């Protein structure tokens, strides 16, 4: 079964999480192992040095307690017991004094210690384990020079390494499982917006294709009908006017699409300057009055309080025109549209209220979606359902809040609350 691109992306990201964590564990574990190994070896060498020093001290004490020098030294080896350590006393030629036998590598080490003063050495035993030795030369009170040596089996270190590796390996496996599970969850959460965006883009492209197909089909049909047979000039004029109207509608859709695309890409810069919202709304209302009168809708400018906002004048005018156009479009003949601008509490507010068909509660949550037009009354309008999306983007870009309150068959009120603008000192 072929995985979807998003599913493959999730698997790859999860695998990268796990692989990265494995690399971190290997580096951390390797470094920790080397450090601990070094510390254990240092501790073992220190214990061998301490055992050798204890043997030297015991030999000196025994020499002082008896008359036979060599016997005194032998007693020191026999009586001194250090767990997991084997002690040797050897003469200047490397021959064992106590015990009676010593391996050749121990004798060689004793001769080197006699020459150098002290020596540390490691000896492999059959390739299975290693022995560690520390030997040092010392002088008895009677004038004899001997070598004291302590030997330990490194298997205790290897046991510690094995237990350490086992504990670290178990913790690493558990950590990898947790990382795999956690990584999968995090990847799912991180790719969720991408999936939503892809779904949104697909829906947007399908809706855009549908909206563009209708005017293109009308244009082509009108042209084909006009070319089928000879007609009177008046018929051609009517056809061309219809083509012109559809071309204008097509142009508006394309222009709105470009506006939203630039907004999504952040390519539409916002020119910030002080703008009088009341003057801008009054100018837009005068422009929309012609359309309102042609439809038989009263456009009233009820309240215009001086209000200053900071923003892009062209975009703000476009937002006001969108709100007025929607209000007039969905208000039946004989209805009324009221425009108000206030500055209560220092917050400039624009409101457009109509007595139109209204919006049902279940549709209010979708009115800002692109190409959404809701009920059949809105579907029959000439718009493409992009106006409120553009208006919301403009409001958001100006740190303003756009709200819609509506009652079906009684009207709709759209409010835009702008942030207060600091008054500049003279």
Q: In terms of topology, how is this protein built?
A:
Layout: H1 5-65, H2 69-79, E1 86-90, E2 96-98, H3 104-116, E3 118-125, E4 129-139, E5 145-153, H4 155-228, H5 233-265, E6 273-276, H6 277-295, E7 298-304, E8 308-311, H7 313-329, E9 336-342, E10 349-354, H8 361-364, H9 376-379, H10 387-397, E11 401-407, E12 411-417
Parallel strand pairs: 7-9
Antiparallel strand pairs: 1-2, 1-5, 3-4, 4-5, 6-8, 9-10, 10-12, 11-12
Helix pairs in contact: 1-2, 1-4, 4-5, 5-10, 6-7, 7-10
Structure, explained:
The chain has helices spanning 5-65, 69-79, 104-116, 155-228, 233-265, 277-295, 313-329, 361-364, 376-379, 387-397; strands at residues 86-90, 96-98, 118-125, 129-139, 145-153, 273-276, 298-304, 308-311, 336-342, 349-354, 401-407, 411-417. It is of the alpha+beta class and 426 residues long. It has a five-stranded antiparallel β-sheet with strand order 2-1-5-4-3, sandwiched between helices. A five-stranded mixed β-sheet has the order 7-9-10-12-11, with helices on one face. A two-stranded antiparallel ribbon has the order 6-8. Strand 3 and strand 4 (129-139) form a beta hairpin. Helix 5 (233-265) packs parallel to helix 10 (387-397).
């Amino acid at each position: 079964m072929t995985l979807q691109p998003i599913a493959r992306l999730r698997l790859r990201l999860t695998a990268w999480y796990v692989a990265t964590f494995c690399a971190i564990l290997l580096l951390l574990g390797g470094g920790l192992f080397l450090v601990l190994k070094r510390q254990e070896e240092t501790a073992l060498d220190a214990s061998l040095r301490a055992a050798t020093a204890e043997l030297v001290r015991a030999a000196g004490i025994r020499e002082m307690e008896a008359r036979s020098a060599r016997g005194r030294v032998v007693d020191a080896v026999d009586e001194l017991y250090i767990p997991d350590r084997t002690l040797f006393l050897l003469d200047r030629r490397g021959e064992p004094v106590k015990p009676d036998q010593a391996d050749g590598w121990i004798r060689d080490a004793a001769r080197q210690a006699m020459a150098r003063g002290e020596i540390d050495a490691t000896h492999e035993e059959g390739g299975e384990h290693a022995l560690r030795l520390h030997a040092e030369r010392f002088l008895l009170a009677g004038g004899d020079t001997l070598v004291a040596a302590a030997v330990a089996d490194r298997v205790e270190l290897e046991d510690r390494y094995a237990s350490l590796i086992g504990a670290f390996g178990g913790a690493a496996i558990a950590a990898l499982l947790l990382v795999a599970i956690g990584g999968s969850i995090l990847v799912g959460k991180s790719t969720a917006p991408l999936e939503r965006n892809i779904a949104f883009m697909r829906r947007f492209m399908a809706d855009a294709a549908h909206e563009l197909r209708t005017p293109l089909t009308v244009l082509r049909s009108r042209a084909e009908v006009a070319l089928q047979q000879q007609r009177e000039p008046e018929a051609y004029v009517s056809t061309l006017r219809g083509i012109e109207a559809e071309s204008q509608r097509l142009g508006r859709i394309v222009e709105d699409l470009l506006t939203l695309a630039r907004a999504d890409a952040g390519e539409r810069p916002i020119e910030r300057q002080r703008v009088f919202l009341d003057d801008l709304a009054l100018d837009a209302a005068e422009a929309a009055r012609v359309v309102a009168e042609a439809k038989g809708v009263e456009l009233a400018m009820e309240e215009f309080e001086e209000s200053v906002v900071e923003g892009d004048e062209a975009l703000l005018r476009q937002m006001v025109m969108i709100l007025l156009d929607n209000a007039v479009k969905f208000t039946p003949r004989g209805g009324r549209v009221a425009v108000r601008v206030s500055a209560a509490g220092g917050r400039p507010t624009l409101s457009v209220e109509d007595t139109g068909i209204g919006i049902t509660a279940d549709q209010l949550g979708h009115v800002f979606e692109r190409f959404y037009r809701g009920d059949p009354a809105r579907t029959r309008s000439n718009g493409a359902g992009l106006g409120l999306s553009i208006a919301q983007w403009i409001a958001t870009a100006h740190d303003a809040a756009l709200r819609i309150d509506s009652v079906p068959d009684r009207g709709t009120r759209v409010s835009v609350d702008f942030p207060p603008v600091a008054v500049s000192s003279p």
